[in-house]
Amino acid sequence: MADTPNEESARDGLFSFLSRRRFLKVSLVAGGAILGVGGGGLLALRGRAPKVDGLRVLDAHEYRTLRSLVEVMLPKTEAIPIDPESMDLPRAFDDFLSDEPEHNVNDLRRALVLIEFGPLAFDKKLTTFSRLDMAERATHWQEWALSDNLLRRQVSIAMRKFFNLVYFDHEQVWPHIGYPGPSMKRPRSVTP
To answer: How far apart are CA 84 and CA 173, in angstroms?
Structure first.
């Protein structure tokens, strides 16, 4: 059947130079460029993290995320006037990961990415967790524990369990919580 004049003019129109193959190539290149700009935008949003020496598993960005997390989870208070920064709890997390199976390490690293980009993903804020001020960060993190999203609650529980375990295991915290220390270390009282 011969082409009608309308069909011919439609083929000879604005996009007549695009064959199917050329269209697919252009689409793939354009899609890659959009993803590249998006990925570059995420990297720019994340910013630079200070260099940290001696890490075994984590990178500087993951370490920074954990430091920001510890600041809001275990702040210095009147009841426990100890700055958790002095304990270097993110390094304890790095040491813990060094002995874990690869699948656990990968899951926990993904959790750190989710935490860092949580304000963008869940609150639609053009910032990252580490860049929020302390009050916003504390509120954002508290929402994780109360979220309807199971994954957010699971990440929150895992991080709270780990850091509470490591924090309250430090001898300098014990007097503030009324723990006399392991019974093997305590002097025995002699009864007459």
So the answer is: 10
